[in-house]
Amino acid sequence: MTDYDVLRVFCAPNGGYGNELGVVREGSVLPDRQDRQDLAAKLGFGETVFVDDPERGVVDVYTPTARLPFADHSCVGVAWLLDVPELVTPAGTLGTRLDGEFNWIEARAEWAPPCTFRQYASAAEVDDLAVPAPGGETAADLPLGESRGTLYAWAWEDEPAGRIRARGFPARGDGVDEDEATGAAALLLTERLGRALNITQGAGSQILTAPQPFGWVELGGRVFLER
């Protein structure tokens, strides 16, 4: 079996919650894309990263069903693990930094996949949402011409402070009913609102964002090594 590390990204202050991430530090052991896809499917993480050059930060990311040009929590996690100033992805080169307990990447919102946003009046309404049932409403068949992709339900917890409560329901068909932490949606929402955000998603994950000049957005969170 190929060796890999398991990280948890966008964790709560106590290290809980967040998204699990698989990282194959020696990507050269599986140079073929189909072999990488097969391993990502076998491991079953939301995303698996193959490191092709640890010094330059060259990475290749897969879900269980597809290769991704850019992946939010993967980049936050692997940047922390490699401790490099930038990452090179198929989408482009992005800067990274560590600031206290948070690891940050700087990415562009257009690199994120489509997302459908639904704003609610209160955090309690978001908490009470049911996971869409199989065959029920998903982000892929919403009315009124809304975008395909993750259905991102959100509400202000404290608007002046930029605090948001959110939940994400993917429509990618790989068996994930609810995403615990969706950095890509956080990028898009930050661009839409034009302000820094402190997002609590899922059962307790924390995602931080900050808009930057020239269309860049910083995305940050805590990273812990599980094994």
From TrEMBL:
Protein's recorded name: Phenazine biosynthesis protein PhzC/PhzF
Gene3D superfamilies membership: Diaminopimelate Epimerase, Chain A, domain 1
Domain of life, per lineage: Bacteria
